[in-house]
Amino acid sequence: MMNCVCPDDAPVVLIDAYSQIFRSYYAVRRLTDGDGNPVNALYVFTRLLLALEREHPTRRGALLFDCGRVAFRLELLPEYKANRPPMPEDLRCQMPRIREMASAFGWRLLQAEGYEADDLIGAFVRVSSPAEVRIVSADKDLSQLLVEERVKLLSPEKGNSGALVERGAESVREKFGVAPERIPDFLALVGDSSDNIAGVPGIGPKSAAELLNTFGAIETWIGAPERLSGSRFAAKLAGQEELLRRNLGLVRLRTDLPAEFADHAAATVKAAPDWSAIAALCRRSGFRSILKELPEEAAEKAAAPEEPDPSVNGNSAGEMVQGELF
């Protein structure tokens, strides 16, 4: 049995929806149900939701979705995310069932005009204090939120197991060489190819970390170039003030909560899983192995059709989703 009663101060679990849906899509390929419909993303995403229910059960949380390319970032950079290809059709057709599965597990599905999922996550992190927060994502942009000890990332391991690894500020320092609060400065310097943001020519990750650790945040020296005088960075950063200020505006998260979620506690109430609905979706999709892992009240598990075996169905795994950190 995986049901639990969570106290009012239970951790808030925030899922970066499209990040995890795309990760699920690339983790297992060419998996179909009995009618030939693709279900690979649904399969891996269902395993993720099941792992969360087992390992991080809570009644506070939500799936956060992007609401298109937001206006304020497009004003700064019209080409922002213009390099992103459209959603593959064999993933798009799975989205209704993915949303249905998430709702069956009790998750609220939230989005807001003018906000990307990362912004909504940042906003809910801010207003949830002092509760602990677990962010399900591997997006490097979100690592800027790990300033507080109460906030951690839950990064799914590669593949389709659904296993989750908790990461905090130290993981960010090990990966980037800077503290979480310096991630916006780091990205402003090196750019972010997944979002079509160009960095400062000649400044790579190691140089950016050295620069920030030696001279501090960009805003402490951007208007005082004499602070960099004599350093190996002075010539490279000359004339880059406009680019750096633009990049900071692009990579910093918007953390004001949308008006429709003013009652943030109500907006992030997670219902208990509807195991019967989950079982029905699994039977419809041919997920026999997942059916065997559901609680006893998920009836008729044994009646499920055989599930395609990902290991012999021409799958490829391990492709990196745009923007992943770990």
Written description of the protein model:
- There is one protein chain.
- The chain is α/β, with parallel strands linked by helices and 326 residues long.
- 38% of the residues lie in helices and 9% in strands.
- The chain has helices at 17-27, 40-55, 71-76, 89-92, 95-104, 117-127, 169-176, 183-190, 205-215, 218-221, 234-237, 241-251, 264-267, 275-285, 288-291; strands at 12-16, 61-64, 108-110, 133-136, 151-156, 164-167, 191-192, 197-198.
- The strands form two sheets. It has a six-stranded mixed β-sheet with strand order 3-2-1-4-5-6, sandwiched between helices. Strands 7-8 form a two-stranded antiparallel sheet.
- The chain is elongated.
- Mean pLDDT is 89; it is low at 1-6 and 311-323.
Topology:
Elements: E1 12-16, H1 17-27, H2 40-55, E2 61-64, H3 71-76, H4 89-92, H5 95-104, E3 108-110, H6 117-127, E4 133-136, E5 151-156, E6 164-167, H7 169-176, H8 183-190, E7 191-192, E8 197-198, H9 205-215, H10 218-221, H11 234-237, H12 241-251, H13 264-267, H14 275-285, H15 288-291
Parallel strand pairs: 1-2, 1-4, 2-3, 4-5
Antiparallel strand pairs: 5-6, 7-8
Helix pairs in contact: 1-2, 2-5, 5-14, 8-9, 8-12
